[in-house]
Protein 1
Amino acid sequence: MNHELISLSCHQAATMNFLSHYYFDRHSADCYHILGTVLPDLLKNADKNIIIHPEKLHHNNPEIASLIQGWKKHLEIDKHFHSSEFFLTHSKGLKLALRPVIEGSPVKPFFLGHIAIELILDNLLLTTKVITVHGFYDHLSSCREDVIEEFLIFSGMDDTRVFFNFFESFKRHRYLETYVDATQVAYALKRICMRVWAHPFTPEQEAAMSKVIIDYRLGIHDSFMQVFEEISQKLEV
């Protein structure tokens, strides 16, 4: 698999750091803005082929305008996060730490490093009680389906059913609650990889990955908030 294809797979497969995006608007009372901040990744999970660009649009309905503003906030946060020294350092650190334990796997270490650091950050936000997952889901549940549908159609989607099928399942199963358990980070990583590779890891590799992730998480436990503080400052400029 060449680097271009691997990069595409990383873009298509990532569940992304929902809770890390939520952190920046955790005090907002606007459920549509909150939903907008995670919609790019929700849509990517629902169907990797969905491509819309509402950040270029304007709408007079304040709820849909909030979704658009939230979407734009998501893009801005991603830009700052993926160019940050924290991300570059720790995605590489995890790549190097995971490389020897997944030898023989079709999954590339840099792919794992990219996704693993995002999942670890979500776990740390929960376990240090900076945010609560219940607040996140409460916001999503408060959004009306007709408003979301109007937004999606306005943004260029012809058939919204694939999104709503996923969205209802996402809210019902509340799998982000499992992120409070560090061992579930490795499981989530495997599930993401399975969207690209049918059998990404052996049971032995999964166990070894889990140990690497837990150890790495402990190593950044006391310093991980620096990336959120750095991005917060850039968002205020």
Protein 2
Amino acid sequence: MKHDIGLIGLAVMGQNLVLNMANNGFSVAVYNRTTSVTDEFVNDLPDRPEDVVHSGTADRIDGYHTVEEFVQNLKTPRRVMIMVKAGGPVDAVIEQLKPLLDKGDIIIDGGNSEYADTNRRTEDLRESGFRFIGTGVSGGEEGALKGPSIMPGGDKEGWPFVKDIFQKISAKVGPNNDIPCCEWVGEAGAGHYVKMVHNGIEYGDMQLICEAYYILKHTLGLSNEELYQVFKEWNEGKLESYLIEITRDIFTVKDPETGNYLVDDILDTAKQKGTGKWMSQHALDLGVPTTLITEAVYARCLSGQKDARVRASKVLEGPEVKFDGDKKQFIDDVREALYASKLVSYAQGYVQLDAAAKEFGWKLNNGDIALLWRGGCIIRSRFLQDIKAAFDKNPDLENLLLDDFFKKAIDEAQPSWRRVVASAVNNGLPVPGFGAALTYYDGYRQDRLPANLLQAQRDYFGAHTYERVDKERGETFHTDWIRERNLT
């Protein structure tokens, strides 16, 4: 039997995608560089629990010890999905495959590759006669098995050959759970770019939730039991989302060894795999202010300086944390601040998507992208449907904050948002996410910012020129500031 698709790379994500494909009726060939991993995966299939392996799944999966044998056992045009570490390992696997494949075969990279690599690989493989699809996959291990969000891009000629598989294994949403969270995103690296933005928004969401927790814990002194109740209530309203849900659950877990709540015994240093950093770096290249996500990246960097922070805490002083207001009102304020800040995070993400689409000539459908994130992925949440509705109503929407629904939401949340940020500042509690979101909002709504003085400074010391409010845009001027100055 020749297989519908082949997958290379049997780490947990790869294994679960294979099981997902086979559970949905597709036959899958698998290969891993370490042959013992292949053998162990295939041999253990019959012993997997029923909620992981459906009837007949084991019969649809075969493992191979050489790439040559693996390729020979695929239907044509061959579809090969690569699930290995991003960067050089992906290029190495592609070079292994090229001599063994025929023109028109499809190579799929389902890892967390950088969009620039996908741009390059799409063009290089097209010139060699192959179809390359760079595919963002979100949802973690559980999503890979039960239905992830899938964001394919690359050579569009390859899309019809993988569409059926990808849409069947993806998460489903809609009234009848029949709308797949998978649709063609765009040319070249568009799929991996959208996945990068997803991950950047994920960074922002997680940071904002952590700040909400930190404020409630240190300002009000809430216990983990009380925090559980707060997040439980939040998850039943407009903040309903996967990340709020798992945060709720975290507050219930105790360490069997110590009996303490586990969250309190976890070291406060956060790691990252790079996608949030890539988004911030490209935001700077594009000249777009993706400030909240960048602050979320920096917050992880600061958390990593644990030893330095411990030393500083013994030297540097700040205000004593005090609260004498209405406890319930403050919890409601934090909820509203979190909601408003999340809206800003998504708004910034879409502004960057639009800028990237213009830069690379991609035709992105922002409403469809919101739908891709409605299920299966880490940032899935209730208000993504509202984002889709906003772009369906106005596909050329310049910024989500200008949509009537989101403008009203921000207007309603604004008093609470400002009270929470002010309280945090007065109590010496760091809120880089909340603060960046509010500062962006206040900057975006101003028709005049102090950059006029900045331009005067640049022209003074470097003759960089400036534009004038009373002249046509694009016309530049220079002043001899030293000669014109009037010192008294």
Protein 3
Amino acid sequence: MQKDRNLKRFMQLTVYIIALLVLGWGFTPYQSVFLGAILGLIIGSFNIWFMYRKVKKLGQAAAEGTKAYSLGMLTRFALAGLAVLVALRYPDTFHLLSMVIGFSSAYIIIFIDFFLKTIRTQ
């Protein structure tokens, strides 16, 4: 399916960006900044994957005529809150602002991928 390919491409791009962040963590003196970005990107990517799974189940339930109860918003908020708590608890290890940027970058990856795919198809 097309949506499965989109998710696979998103996960591949995310892994490449995490690899770049790991290189930045290993070769620069800004370890806390890069670790915060890695934490945020991992949590953000998991949230996107979790939402994809829930939407897929919702679509199947609608096609079958059964009920789907939740899209897991509370779980995704709890994960984001957990990432913030970890960054606040260990500020010398995880930089809070870079964690927020890393979390947001998961959504930016989707936007850029969609934009580039739209340009390629025209």
